[in-house]
Amino acid sequence: MSNTSESQKTNESERRQQLLQMMTTEHFVLETARAATIQEANQRANLFLTSVSSATIALAFVAQVTRMGLPFVLFSLILLPCLYFIGLVTFVRAVQVAIEDMVHARGMARIRHYYTELAPPMARYLVHSTHDDHLALVADVGLKPRSWQAFASTAGMVNVVDGAIAGVFAGVMANAVIGATVGLALTVGILAFAASNWCLWQFHMRSWASAEHKLKVLFPSAENHGGPALQRSSNEVQRQG
Description:
single chain
């Protein structure tokens, strides 16, 4: 019996050691995946901003040569939609990458929770959260759930720049088609800017809310475990959705 008991303890110890090694490997994989998503978002944003910068310089040269004549208008009407398309696909992919990063962050939080299950005293030395709910991950980086926080992300920046492109295109189109005055063209441009920003912001919020609903929370934080904070968060997600 003694040998059997010792053998079981040895097997259990080996099993835990193997699980710990697998969890450590998975944590490394998730960390690498997060780095890849951040790199992709930065590269796409850089490509978009470089395209906008190059197009602005090209428009300035054409405007100087043609003295803001018909060739400039035609060149603008051809170039600006192309820029808007680049910004649109950059925005959509930036939202997708942000959701991927959030999923990876939750996976890492679950692994940290497993570490604290194996060694409870370890919890006090961990800087990052061991909970995988939305409030815990947001608080993990020193933030609070805010709807306008989307504009501080890479996707939010692309959204604003893309809206400006839409506004310029709408103003040039209004002036070219109906001969609008500067004031009317400016008004049309502002409306197009606001409409583009609102539509893309709605897409951002709905995509994020949809991803939140699909993810199952296994280890909620104390303030999110059926308390008022959870109700506020649920109401906010419903409003965003």
